[in-house]
Amino acid sequence: MGPPVAQPMGQPTGPQSPPQGPPMGPPPGWPPQPSAPQPRRKPTGLIVGLSLGAVAVLVLGVLTIVALNRPDPSNTTAGDLNAPAPAPTSAYELPPNNGSSSTSSDEPTSSEQSTTSSEDSGPHKILELGDHPLLQDPNAGLQNQVCDLPAWASTQQGAEAFFTAASKCLDAAWGPFLEAYHLPFTSPALHFPTGPSFDTECGTIQVGIATAAYYCENNLYVPFKGLQTDQYGNNPGVYLALFAHEYGHHVQEVAGIMDAAWQKIYAAGQNSAEGLEMSRRKELQAQCFSGMFLGAHVDQGGTVTREMYNKAWSDQETRGDNTSHSHDHGTNAHYAQWWRAGAKDNRIADCNTFSAPSSAVS
Q: H-type helices in 119-235, by residue range?
């Protein structure tokens, strides 16, 4: 008997409109006017797992390299990889009462209004980490929705169709959620490079086994030649999970979490113990966001099937720092743990890696 099926979610109580390697960086030019030269940034996204060995790539700006990493089968515990994947046990809502109109007694006076800065007049990023409003409500999560994806085909055209449809599902899931927190949601632009390299605001990126997807400043690049479809074949659940991880970095960017994290990394030094830990917290949160997405859409009547979900669940243990021999993404065990936390319960508060103890993000 398989794991329990997710229950359908009701209407949200709050306002309806108020996706292995180096981590992705901030927007080009960040931080503004540094007092001293800053080190070059690595992409803050992750080489998620479409490579046999992740290659560290130092680049300037906000970017993400995704690559699926497979460890030596002899180093993998078969019992763990073959364990059944429990489905989400419950569904959650948009943040309640967030952005709703206030009572007359709570409204600011005219003098207070005149002193309100222009950045508070509309949706804007909030540069916070563990205390970010997005991560506080224990009952908030993505709505259960139908996501219809075309059948996976290991061709350039097939991959473009699959990821384009997946991006629309991710927009529909994360857009209303972020807007409910008064955050400035925009969809990332998709690009499907076909050459040996491609240009981004973060520099020229070489396509190889370590480049399955790449995020830079509101742009998501998916070079088909980097997906290693000859090895992973017809495995849409694995591809969807890595794409949702990369999209998770876009969520962090929109929210302001990414900028806040890079401030800490710059202050500590990218290769310092503190800087590497901050990088792991970013990557593991994107893992959790990816799990939330699949958990909210499996068994909802669309094409995100239980088989896709189960394969994505098992695949998470094959990626992480144990596989890539790096220190900026988290151990394989933690990589799987955080993805599964998001997938099983679909609670964004469970994705607060920035408040987790160091032992949970090693």
A: 156-179, 229-232
- The closest of 132, 137, 42, 154 to 98, measured between CA atoms, is 137
pLDDT tens digits, 37-72: 333 343 444 333 433 333 333 333 333 433 444 433
Least confident piece of the model among 112-116, 142-146, 180-184, 233-237: 112-116
| Residue 284 CA to its chain's centroid (Å) | 8
pLDDT of residue 120: 57
CA 318 to chain centre: 18
Q: What is the DSSP letter of 40?
A: P
Per-residue confidence band for 5, with pLDDT thresholds at 50, 70 and 90: very low
Q: Which residues make beta-bridge pairs with 199?
A: 204
Please enumerate in sequence order all residues whose Cβ is within 8 A of that of 7, keeping only pairs 6 or more positions apart, or say none. Answer: 90, 91, 144
**Domain coordinates of the chain in residue numbers?**
73-95+126-357
Supply the DSSP string of 88-104, one letter for each residue. P----BSPTTTTPPPPG
Cβ atoms < 10 Å from Cβ of 190: 15
Return the H-helix or E-strand segment holding 14: none
Query: In whole angstroms, what is the distance from residue 313 CA to residue 85 CA?
Result: 6
pLDDT for 178: 96
pLDDT at 17 over 90: no
Distance between CA 65 and CA 49 in Å, rounded?
Answer: 10
Which helix (H) or strand (E) segment holds residue 278: the answer is helix 273-297
Name 140's Cβ contacts closer than 8 Å, sequence gap at least 6: 92, 93, 94, 95, 96, 177, 347, 348, 349
